[in-house]
Write a structure and sequence with these properties.
mainly alpha, Ferritin, binds hydroxy diiron-OXO moiety
């Protein structure tokens, strides 16, 4: 009798569900940062806009990393519904405060999945997620440094102009290049 080939599935359904939830978070991060980038560009914060356009791309890349992982492990990665994205902000400082708050939520979500993988002995997914654990540490640090820049320079007078330049430098951008990466 011909052998039935079963799909090689190494993920439990529960882990697949959690990873799909994380896809939604990464997709939301990307949309959120894109919206912030656009707002910054309209307000003339060109360096912050470039920073955030790049960041939106990075978040999409994080989302795609999880897509590949789920599908390679025999699951089904689902395109997330993204709604309810904020389009205007009170100030540039508020943008970076919201980024920090958002990244802290993302870190918690990643840690919860890591916990789940550890307790269910899914060491493969546990190992896959280490990249995200490190990435979140870097992103939270970056958001905290950004807020320090506001405190150090101060927002009065030319302050915001200098803050915008320093925020770009924090992301490794050359302030002499005034084009945004919105293309
Ligand atoms: Fe995906 O790294 Fe932040 O959110």
């Amino acid at each position: 009798m011909k052998e039935v080939i079963t799909p090689n599935r190494s993920l439990t359904e529960e882990t697949e569900k959690l990873l799909n939830k994380q896809i939604v978070m990464e997709g939301k991060s990307s949309a959120y940062y894109l919206s912030m980038a656009s707002w910054c560009e309209t307000k003339g914060y060109i360096n912050s806009a470039r920073f955030l356009y790049d960041h939106a791309d990075e978040e999409r890349m994080h989302m795609l990393k999880i897509f590949s992982y789920i599908n390679e492990a025999g699951g089904h990665a689902l395109q997330p519904e993204i709604t309810g994205i904020q389009h205007s902000f009170k100030s540039l400082r508020e943008v970076f405060q919201l980024i920090l708050e958002h990244e802290i939520k993302v870190t918690k979500s990643i840690h919860d999945i890591v916990d789940h993988c550890f307790s269910t002995k899914d060491y493969t997914t546990f190992s896959f997620l280490q990249w995200f654990v490190n990435e979140q540490r870097e992103e939270e640090t970056m958001a905290r440094r950004a807020l320090e820049i506001f405190d150090i320079i101060g927002e009065k007078g030319m302050g915001l102009w200098y803050i915008d330049i320093e925020l770009g430098k924090l992301h490794g951008l050359d302030p002499a290049n005034t084009e945004t990466s919105a293309r």
